[in-house]
Fold this protein.
Amino acid sequence: MLKSVVSLYRNAYAGVPRGAWILALAEFINRCGFMVLVFLNIYLTRHLGFTLLQAGRVLSAYGLGAIAGGYLGGALCDKVGVRRVQIGSLVLSGIVLIISGYAEGYALLLVLLFLYGVVATALFPANDTAMSRFCSGEMRSKGFALRRLAANLGITFGPVIGGFLILIDYRWLFWADGLTTLASAVVIARYVKLIPASTAGPGPARPLPKNGSPWRDIPFLAYMGFFLVLAVVFSQLFSTFNLYLNQVYGLKENRIGPLWAVNTILIVAVEMILIHAVRRRSETKIIALGAVFIGLGFGLMPLGRGFGYAAFTVFVWSIGEILTMPLAATVTANRAGASAGRYMGVLSLVFSLAMFVAPLCGNWLYGAAGGDALWFIMGGAGILAAFGFLALGKEMDVPKQATPAV
């Protein structure tokens, strides 16, 4: 039995190139310091004395910067090189974080958080593009899944460490986050050597526009439209999800936190195995299945109460996340071919836009129609996105290729 389990995990991780492991290590180091954004609202209101409205505007400044940075980072990948964008993003992010720890003025923090949103989010399409160049064929989904696993592991440490640093001085949050970001830049600068973009793997399912612009690729834009719908549903986790559990389920904060651990444990335990199991199947069909699980996970929330039932819904939407998120990047990279940077920039833009839109529409629906109605609507939106992905399958899928020797 033990040998079978070991063999299962060995096969799941087998063949992932060294460069992908280094990118995952850099992501882990970077995410281990993920703490400033987690505690920023508390820092601004309790430590600096900002009003809730002022603090919300500072957080929104970061969101607006992230929308710009996601697309800018992707565009720069094709112009100045993926490795330079990664290093530049991490170095600038670390510097801005440390400086922000010494800023106390409202206007200055608005500017700094907007700038931080731009430079920090530019990293995401660069990382996606780098991973797509290291990994081709069925390895591509494994590479994206490995990096997600590293990020989730790192994020479990960041807030915990940050909670202890706050007891010493809030400024330590900014130093710790900034220094881990700079350390991640050192890892990439020292150990990451990107392969040529021409060997990036399978080409698009259909001929792309002559200039390689994602904005003229109609099937891809449709795919991004449905993904935006799904991302808005999923991003309710960062706005209305905790609020609903607290107000309707009656769960206190110390009972909500462990629910997030269910998600992390599942990702670490089974994501690579599941991605390995579906590696030769249609990516868009698997994404559609994942969208169904995400929709069901949220849509089932009004039908029960209590910690155990909440954990069950987390389990359901976590399976959807596992099936959807790595493959979304894979489909985008496969579609892009040599224009990976610009296409990955659009994917990052969609994620950032969803993070901006989700709290606005979610909070409005919660207040206007109630929490139960919100989750039924979100569940239906997830199912709608699934049908959209299925309809685009023939356009977006590419023929499966054998995995190259590494």
